[in-house]
Each structure stands twice: as structure tokens, then as C-alpha cells.
Design goal:
alpha/beta; Rossmann fold; two-stranded antiparallel ribbon; 7 helices; FMN reductase [NAD(P)H] activity; NADPH-dep_FMN_reduc_SsuE
Length: 195
């Protein structure tokens, strides 16, 4: 199973990326590795020009296509999600999110922009084929603190809401099981039945 985390902020230390890393780390412990990418993985020129045919855009689509779960995080500016993220999403195929579980995460200056997830990001995700978009998590700047060294601290309320969102994703996924050793006797009997 594949999980991908998409960062909509160009800053590795952004508050939205803190939420994304928290969710990705929790899911990786339960379900295996999580691939991550962001707007910095596509050249600025390809983003600005919407260069669908570029090598960066092709690599982006190759990484998103096999994912079963998409975590997507963005800062909110002027009551909408980041323009760089929109440019990145424009490089995906029209049905790139079809059949995937999508968990949107966002941060903004105040609670006044809380509905940006509902009214700006979720319609774009839906236009890309997503039909299983979970309730997102929105945090204000005061709820996610990042110091000069990049260390982050989450408000308890946000941590609880993130944990609930991660649990919602986990409940929709099969449990991670350890590989079973081959039972050669059983395998031999199956092969004989197949002949």
C-alpha cells in the first residue's frame, strides 16, 4: 500500500509542513513508509507555465498514481490555499485522485480562514476525481509553534484532532501484517491441485 504526503508550502519549516510530517510519521509507523513530495520537487518554471509535458510533471504523476492515500497540506493565504499548490495540482491527470483516500491539512493566520479547506481546496480535489475526502484539520499560527531551529510544538487540541484524522485514515486501510514464511507443504499441495 502506498501513502504520499504532498506539501503545498515551499518552506520546509512551515506550519502546514509540521502538520504534514506529524501525520506522515504516524501513518508510517502503522502502515509502512510514506513518500513525500512538494512544490519544490517541480521547477518553478514548470509550475508557472503549467508545463504538463515536463520531466518534473511526469515524475510527479508517477509518484501520485500508485498512492492509496494522499495527505495534502497547505498554508492559507487571502482565504484560499496556496497558489503554488494549485499549480502543482494542475500538473496531475484529471482523475489523479480517483479511488484514493485524501486527508487535507491547512494552517492560517486565524480561525477566520477555517473554511478555506471546504470552499477552495476540497472542490479542486474533487475535480481531480477524489470522492473520499476526509474531514480536514485546520490550525492557526498560534496552535503550531516553530522555533528558529525548526523544532515544532503542537497545541493539544490540534494534536487530538490530528490523531483522530490519522485514526480515520487507518480505519480505512488494511492492517499492516508481517510477511508469512512460506509453508512448503501447503505450497506443494496447492501446486498439485492447480495441475
Amino acid at each position: 500500500m502506498s501513502i504520499i504526503a504532498i506539501a503545498g508550502s515551499p518552506s520546509a519549516r512551515s506550519r502546514s509542513n509540521v502538520l504534514l510530517r506529524y501525520a506522515a510519521q504516524a501513518l508510517s509507523q502503522q502502515h509502512g513508509s510514506v513518500d513525500s513530495l512538494g512544490i519544490r520537487d517541480v521547477s518553478a518554471e514548470d509550475l508557472v507555465h503549467g508545463n504538463y509535458a515536463s520531466e518534473d510533471a511526469a515524475r510527479l504523476r508517477q509518484r501520485v498514481t500508485p498512492a492509496r492515500v494522499v495527505l495534502i497540506a497547505t498554508p492559507v493565504y487571502k482565504a484560499s490555499f496556496a497558489g503554488g499548490l494549485k499549480a502543482l495540482l494542475d500538473l496531475l491527470d484529471q482523475t489523479a485522485l480517483a479511488g484514493k483516500i485524501v486527508l487535507p491539512l491547512a494552517t492560517g493566520g486565524s480561525a477566520a480562514h477555517l473554511l478555506a479547506l471546504e470552499y477552495s481546496l476540497k472542490p479542486v480535489l474533487s475535480a481531480l476525481g477524489a470522492r473520499h475526502i476526509l474531514a480536514g484539520v485546520y490550525a492557526t499560527e498560534a496552535q503550531v509553534q516553530v522555533d528558529e531551529q525548526g523544532n515544532a510544538q503542537l497545541d493539544e487540541d490540534i494534536r487530538v484532532r490530528l490523531d483522530a484524522a490519522i485514526e480515520a485514515v487507518s480505519q480505512l486501510l488494511p492492517a499492516r501484517t508481517a510477511p508469512r514464511p512460506y509453508d512448503l507443504g501447503r505450497l506443494a499441495s496447492q501446486l498439485q491441485l492447480a495441475v
